[in-house]
Amino acid sequence: MDNINEYKAAFAAFMGLLTGFWGWLGWLVVLWAGMMVLDYLTGSAAAAKDGKWSSAKAREGIWHKMGMVVIVVVAATADVLLGMVLDYIPAIQLPFHYCCVLAPIVLVWYIVTELGSIAENAAVMGAPVPKWLLKLLETVNETIDKAGDGLSNNNKEE
């Protein structure tokens, strides 16, 4: 315990280094990855509590998560591509300032979706879940959907 301040300083320096390296977008990725793991664990726990856990369903959940990773990679790649195109082809312009928009919106949408799933899993495990929390998460998800739809100028009802 004599070196606790050194450990704290080293941890703070490490976190500062990571933030400097990958910025706020990196922390969104870390948060999303953490929520995916927590959702998988709580989903498995909820299924086990009800006696419905199966390795096939667990594998399906992992495939689902891997599909989400692919979508985030697609969004990040599209961000990089659009950024390069807008920087180097002056004839192409967007009606708004573009700077890394797709990946953050997709990540926040996935994080909010994971939070809703975690809350549902907690309810199955017997935890009381405030209805307003679920409504708030749903409202945030709808707002993110509208923002994404606005970016694509797709304001039609589907």
Question: Could you characterize the architecture of this molecule?
Answer:
The protein is mainly α. It is built from 4 helices and no strands. It has helices spanning 4-49, 55-88, 102-124, 131-151. The radius of gyration is 20 Å and the shape is globular.
Short description:
This protein has 158 residues and is mainly alpha-helical. Helix content is 78%, strand content 0%. 11% of the residues are buried.
List the helices and strands and how they pair.
Blueprint: H1 4-49, H2 55-88, H3 102-124, H4 131-151
Order of helices and strands: HHHH
The coarse overall form would be globular
Give the helix level as a range of percent.
over 70%
Question: How many distinct helices?
Answer: 4
In angstroms, what is the radius of gyration?
A: 20 Å
> What are the low-pLDDT stretches, counting only 5+ consecutive residues below 50?
none
Structural category is mainly alpha
- Percent strand: under 5%
| Distance between the amino and carboxyl termini | 60 Å
Residue-averaged pLDDT: 88
